[in-house]
Amino acid sequence: MRGNATNFQSFRPMRTRLILTALFALALAPAMAQSAAEDTEQTACRQLFDPELISVMALPVQPSVDVSLDTRALTTLEGKPAGQRVLGRTTARLRNSSAYKTRIQKLPGGRICARPGVTVTLSYEPTIIFVGSEYPAGSCEYRKIIEHEQRHVAMHALHLEELTPLLQADLREFYAHATLVFELPASALQYFQTGTQTVIRERIKQMSGDAHARQAGVDSSEEIGKMSALRKLCATENAPPSGGR
């Protein structure tokens, strides 16, 4: 009898563990079923996703010309020492705007399938070319300064040309794997807006180094030397032809 009692007690911990395991599995069953249902909804919703509805476009870079500041003021704005003189400068700011057209489909379980449509517009606005007020429009100096600054504008346009397809590919990749099933339409829009801006920031950050290097290349030492000798160059061009006999 005593030996039997001892054997019975040795089985009690194992039996207790089996009961707890069964109860734990029973408790998890609804959550697992819900998770499986959610996965099914996500998969079905992603099959409705159309990557063509995610697009990126760039506006032309259209600079305006400002002659309200003299070269001393432009030099100060550039942060250059007093011994140097800035004849012109170009300012531009890269901007982006996003328009969302999300299609909502009600799911049997009460949640929604959000089918995203996003159009991102890139631009350098405003782009302003400053020319020192000492140089009237049409003068040799004015034309040479504009020619130089237009090269900076061209680098901005090239940056947009390269950025547009890469950003579009990034956004389509993001939405192809994004969450598309939500409780409320407002939650879907907030998720899409946050995700879109994160992707845009990362791509712009990755390309900023090359963009800055190109702008610095426009202001090469050789080019700066030419601009520094602009007065002499233009004096030669403007000189009347010498008379001959």
Number of strands: 7
Helix content: 55-70%
Low-confidence stretches: 1-6, 25-34
Topology pattern, helix = H, strand = E: HEEHEEEEHEHHH
Q: How is the main sheet built?
A: 4 strands, mixed
Comma- or semicolon-separated keywords:
245 residues, 6 helices
How would the blueprint of this fold be written?
Elements: H1 2-46, E1 54-58, E2 64-66, H2 71-78, E3 88-100, E4 103-106, E5 112-115, E6 118-131, H3 140-176, E7 181-182, H4 185-218, H5 221-228, H6 230-238
Parallel strand pairs: 1-6, 2-6
Antiparallel strand pairs: 3-6, 4-5, 5-7
Structural features, described:
- The chain is built from 6 helices and 7 strands.
- The chain is of the alpha/beta class.
- Strands 1, 2, 3 and 6 form a 4-stranded mixed sheet that branches. A 3-stranded antiparallel sheet has the order 4-5-7.
- A hairpin with a 5-residue loop joins strand 4 and strand 5.
- The radius of gyration is 33 Å and the shape is rod-shaped.
